[in-house]
């Protein structure tokens, strides 16, 4: 049992650095917002933590803020990364660019806040679709980790993923069934490390 745990693959889930919309607390979703400048993006600690770490594979949301995050913290990995649209944040449709304060009087928004599985943002993404696309890539990582474990039992496998806060919360709940979606919160420019497989 201990031996299997020692060789479990590690998933390093990184939330992109800060954007202007992060500071303004606006829903970003699929909007392609750039990072703030070097210091304001808050990536200094992340750059240090990732320095010199070997990764067996690198995945990145195809949105600009994630691509820029990877380029700033590990420019050596940019050409090796797989840029996957399944790692995008949920599409908030007409609510993108809006804040809670701007939307809180909208009954449809209130219903979505209370039960996001049953209500979708106008012209946005239904929860089932969001969960399906993120589940697909999680299952792919599990398969890769399993094959790698059989082929290279002594070789540590780390998968680096640069993505969005909502995606990280969903992945956390998919890989740790005891955790709900709202139980995981990660700040911009931080990492959540999870085990893949048994």
Ranges where pLDDT stays below 50 over 5 or more residues in a row are 1-5
CATH architecture: 3-Layer(aba) Sandwich
* Major sheet: arrangement of strands: 3-2-4-1-5
**Main pleated-sheet profile:** 5 strands, mixed
Beta-strand percentage?
Answer: 5-15%
Look at the helices and sheets and give the structural class: alpha/beta
Which bin fits the share of residues in helices? 25-40%
Q: Please tally the β strands and state the result.
A: 5
Number of helices: 8
Shape: globular
CATH topology heading: Rossmann fold
Rg to the nearest angstrom?
17 Å
At the fourth level of CATH, the homologous superfamily is Phosphoglycerate mutase-like
Mean pLDDT: 91
Q: Please write the string of helix (H) and strand (E) elements.
A: HEHHEHEHHHEHE
Taking the alpha carbons of the first and last residues, their distance comes to 9 Å
Total number of distinct structural domains: 1
CATH class: Alpha Beta
């Amino acid at each position: 049992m201990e031996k299997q745990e020692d060789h479990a693959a590690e998933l390093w889930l990184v939330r992109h650095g800060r954007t202007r919309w992060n500071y303004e607390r606006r829903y970003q979703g699929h909007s392609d917002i750039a990072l703030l400048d070097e210091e304001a993006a808050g990536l200094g600690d992340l750059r240090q933590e990732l320095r010199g770490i070997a990764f067996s594979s690198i995945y990145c949301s195809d949105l600009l803020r994630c691509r820029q995050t990877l380029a700033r913290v590990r420019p050596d990995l940019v050409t090796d990364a797989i840029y996957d649209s399944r790692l995008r944040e949920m599409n908030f449709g007409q609510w993108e660019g809006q804040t809670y304060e701007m939307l809180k009087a909208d009954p449809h928004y209130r219903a979505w806040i209370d039960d996001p599985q049953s209500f979708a943002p106008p012209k946005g993404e239904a929860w089932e679709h969001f969960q399906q696309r993120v589940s697909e890539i999680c299952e792919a990582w599990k398969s890769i980790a399993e094959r790698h474990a059989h082929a290279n039992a002594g070789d540590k496998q780390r998968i680096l993923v640069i993505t969005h806060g909502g995606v990280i919360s969903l992945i956390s709940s998919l890989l740790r069934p005891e955790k709900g979606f709202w139980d995981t919160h990660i700040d911009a420019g931080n990492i959540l490390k999870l085990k893949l497989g048994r």
